[in-house]
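Q: Could you fold this chain for me?
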Amino acid sequence: MVAEPQLRAWAAAASVPDPEVPCVTVEDLGILRWVRMDGEVAVAGVTPTYSGCPAVLAIEFAVEAALRDAGFEARIERVMTPPWTTDWVTPEGREKLRAYGIAPPAETSGSKMALFGETAVACPRCASERTERLSEFGSTACKAQYRCIACGEPFDYFKCI
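A: Sure. Below is the predicted structure, expressed as structure tokens.
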């Protein structure tokens, strides 16, 4: 059974929004790996979406601040293995991305077609798969820029990793 302080610590850390995609939390993205108690210290394991992610320090500081705001002494541990994958984005996170106007990863990270950018990407606004990639990079390195041919709207696609 998980102790009450650990549950409170998890809830505090899990509520932190991603600084680059604020519609989703670190829990939604699957980058909050665990929270455990080490005596009186809440220790959170965080895996960056990729090793060069410019937001990793901001995320770690925000998780630490959320734990401190919840009344805990806090420590963050960066967890690099196994590496993060878009498979860890929760179903709720995928829906939040779609509602925000970002197409969630369309295939699992193990898909050879997805690795080479040959994935059919559905428009998050009208659900049409009649879309085209405009740029391999969108507003952040983990997103690509697409346009829907059916409705004409541009949108970001959260790339499979």
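A (continued): The first strand starts at residue 32 and ends at 38.
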